[in-house]
Design a protein that fits this description.
11 helices, Alpha-Beta Plaits, 15 strands, Aminopeptidase, single chain, 3 domains
Length: 362
């Protein structure tokens, strides 16, 4: 079977000379690459050219970088792209604003789309809190004592992008939308749990979560019996490239972990859940899957795909309890669970704002 062409998003710095960009696109065309979109981003001292390129089958990112360098350019960032990246920035910002006004719970996901960020999370607004001065982390001010922290590994943020994101937050505030907050839910036995995005400081809590899980639970999730993993793997779990990680937290413990990872199909994302044994059957996985479905729907995904062992029925049962239509079929020796993102209620009651902050900061 012939390999499928890959689509990439490149940010390129070129000398300010006539024809520089034309020479780069010509060289890409010689490598059977199709430039699908082009935009210019102002930066101090010049501009960045952003190209969305469909590469010829078998062409690697290193080949694209070599083509740029051959014409005297420097690649400031490269990441996998999909058809949604073909929307121009102003249109994407307007769509994100409409989504955030219509569904305040999707505000962080709307910001993530505008910034093409790996993650956007909320945190208490503290003047003493600083972000890493590397351009890959940003701190935006919402209101009501809330800050928004964004991270993007594939390319540094530009001031234009950050200004656009701050304007989106200001617009949502002017429209009466509440500041983004962690979501509080009640388990079936009345215990309060906060659902929030995972962040880099959660490595120890996630390692402890894995240590408390039985080997059976770990095997059903990872299809292997490994209990401990290197710290760099935990960081990747919490900050997957172009993916989303959410955690369920009770007091100072992370009791469940969920992930969304984009697939090669633009409207589909892979979903996975890990729920501590003592919290299984209490609605935590149901609430977490419902929240992930809402996030996926806000990002434009219509389908979540989960992979289970052939006799494992936990994910289909969880989808049913979350009110999500789903279907199952055997594929490659595993059970493929297809879950629709439509109509994804979050089970439980939203906590008061003060309680949400208390649990989120615990």
């Amino acid at each position: 079977m012939e390999p499928t062409p890959k689509t990439w998003r490149l940010r390129v710095e070129l000398d300010d000379s006539p024809g520089a960009l034309a020479r780069v696109t010509t060289r890409l065309a010689e490598r059977d690459c199709n430039v699908l979109a082009l935009s210019v981003i102002p930066v101090p001292g010049g501009v960045l050219d952003e190209l969305v390129v469909r590469a010829a089958p078998g062409l690697l990112p290193a080949d694209l970088l070599a083509a740029v360098r051959a014409e005297g350019g420097r690649c400031a960032g490269i990441t996998a792209a999909d058809v949604r990246d073909l929307v121009d920035a102003p249109t994407a910002a307007l769509r994100a604003a409409a989504r955030g006004l219509d569904d305040p719970a999707a505000a962080c996901e709307a910001l993530r789309a505008v910034l093409a960020a790996d993650s956007v999370v909320t945190a208490p607004d503290s003047p003493d809190e600083q972000v890493e001065p590397d351009g890959h982390h940003a701190r935006l001010v919402a209101r009501d004592g809330v800050a928004v922290l964004a991270r993007r590994g594939w390319a540094p943020f530009t001031q234009v992008e950050l200004a656009r994101a701050q304007a989106l937050l200001d617009l949502l505030a002017a429209g009466g939308a509440p500041a983004p907050q962690p979501v509080g839910v009640l388990t079936t036995d009345g215990v309060a749990v906060v659902l929030r995005p995972g962040r880099s400081g959660d490595e120890r809590a996630v390692a402890d979560l894995r240590a408390r899980c039985s080997m059976g639970t770990l095997f059903n999730r990872y299809h292997s019996g490994t209990r401990t993993v290197p710290r760099r793997w935990l960081h990747r779990l919490l900050s997957p490239p172009r993916g989303t990680t959410s955690v369920a937290q009770c007091a100072d413990r992370v009791v469940a972990l969920g992930q969304l990872i984009p697939t090669s199909t633009p409207d589909s994302a892979e979903v996975s859940l890990l729920v501590e044994d003592a919290w299984q059957g209490r609605g935590v996985g149901t609430a977490l899957l419902g929240a992930l479905a809402r996030t996926a729907r806000a990002a434009g995904y219509r389908e979540l795909v989960g992979w289970c062992l052939p006799d494992e029925r936990g994910l289909p049962r969880t989808a049913a309890r979350a009110g999500l239509a789903h279907s199952c079929r055997r594929e490659d020796g595993l059970l493929r669970v297809s879950i629709s993102t439509g109509g994804a209620p979050i089970t439980g009651a939203t906590l008061p704002e003060s309680a949400s902050r208390q649990f989120a900061s615990g």
